[in-house]
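User: Hi! I'm working on a homework problem where we have to compare a predicted structure to a textbook description. Could you give me the structure for the chain below?
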Amino acid sequence: MIDDVERALVVMAHPDDIDFSCAGTVATWTDAGIEVAYLLVTDGDAGGFDDDVPREEMGPLRRAEQTAAAKCVGVTDVRFLGYPDGRVEPTLDLRRDIARVIRQVRPDRVVISSPERNYERIYAGHPDHRAVGSAAWDAVYPDARNPYAFPELRAEGLEAWTAREIWVMGGPSLGEYVDVTDVFDRKLAALRSHVSQVSHHEDLEGMLRAWMGANAARGGLPEGRLAEAFQIVPAV
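Assistant: Happy to help. Predicted structure tokens:
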């Protein structure tokens, strides 16, 4: 992996996707002085478990939850595209909208969900996750770096930008394990900010420790450590 990172962008489909998948890693980056921005493609308006919450209130609620969660791990730049939850497709419009943010943020590293199904973990293969992963991959290459792709972006004053590395979450080829044991409490706090999504979990901490402990074991880390898993793809 590259070691001179100044900025990173995390692109995911729904509020709470980042916090389940990589908030611990984000905390280690912000602690190291890396500027991290979040881009959520939807507001998560199809989420939740409470019929008493009107649907029109769910999107704004989840935006607020994600904004609070981000602060737990040192992120204040949180952006939303407002695509409809559950109906995301990897369209040219979505590629352009993600490329726009890449050109605005100018990240060295982009974190995305996997465009592929993971047949060992059904939740990672949510169709919105795969659609956003595919569009974000294409936005990194070739869209954001090609000055002649989406000329309207250049007309907005956004010159081409080349991100140098992609970190893929939830896919079938994970091989890089980040030890996040020392920031686990902040990851847990971030997830607990998503009250509308996690309040039904009787033992959220136990579930995370089991899952992340298994990641650490696969990564060869000592017993008792906790890890998040990625596939790292050079983008230059």
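For your comparison, note the following. The mean pLDDT is 95. Residues 115 and 130 are 4 Å apart (CA to CA). Good luck with the assignment!
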